[in-house]
Task: structure prediction
Amino acid sequence: MTTSSSDIVLTNITQIFRGASVRSVGGEFKAVDNVSFTLSADPPGIVSLVGQSGSGKSTIARIILGLQKPTEGSVTYRGKDIYKLSAREYDAYRQEIQPVFQDPYGIFNPFYRVDRVFWTVIKKFKLARNRQQALAKIEESLHAVDLRPEDVLNRYPHQLSGGQRQRVMLARVHLLQPKFIIADEPISMLDAAVRVLFLNILIDFQQKYGMTTLFITHDLSTAYYVGGKILVMSKGEIVERGDIDDVLVHPTHPYTQMLLSSIPIPDPDARWQDKTSLVDIEGAMPIVALPDMEVPR
Ligand SMILES: Nc1ncnc2c1ncn2[C@@H]1O[C@H](COP(=O)(O)OP(=O)(O)OP(=O)(O)O)[C@@H](O)[C@H]1O
Result:
């Protein structure tokens, strides 16, 4: 695969946790095992990292964000190992790579109104020359995530719904215009209707604003909805990868087949069952879209 310098390139990443807290005998646990992949900036895309709980997905997210130096291997961006950047270079990296987490409370201070989230970012990264320009940018970012400024800016975080808080987090990301979004289980606390809204915004961010997302989920349905590429992770290893349509229709690894077989058929008359067929007719859409989702392809 050819890579450009503005890609994020993970090469042979291994993460071993040591100490009393780890579960294996001998006090060592390999959470990530020799993982390599590239997040391409050009063209922008969505890459879903899928696997069951404990497979190592969040560890990879932390490693990419520069929060967890891997035991072995490298993450490079613009040709440089991100764990060898100066403080100034790392700040620049973190402006271009933005996290989106499951629980957006981390970006809010409960004692301040929501608008402070945006003013803090504008000041820290010097995104506007004056107050008027800053306000225009904030409003543009809120509109990009389908929020009205008057509905959120003067409220306190607890006065917003979970979906509004998540969208404020996405508006913050929009304000920063990063090249990459690392979204770790961003929708698992949202209800189905709000999930679709959130996923559509991620798709918009890719298509309209050229951002690449690493979308971490344990849910194949939502990975299928956002499209693009998929990396399937099991016990710290990437066991299958490719275009999502190919992988889900023709899974080759037993683990992917097992994940697929545990998806319920969205048929109101059908009950959960151990084994379900992935497609009813060869070439038809896999039965993985949630019932109320419109697949945008
Ligand atoms: N700091 C740590 N010390 C010891 N073990 C850890 C540490 N961080 C993660 N682990 C272990 O590494 C494994 C992978 O964790 P990770 O959070 O990456 O999985 P995950 O796929 O994101 O799971 P989930 O979907 O539940 O968030 C787990 O078994 C976890 O207990």
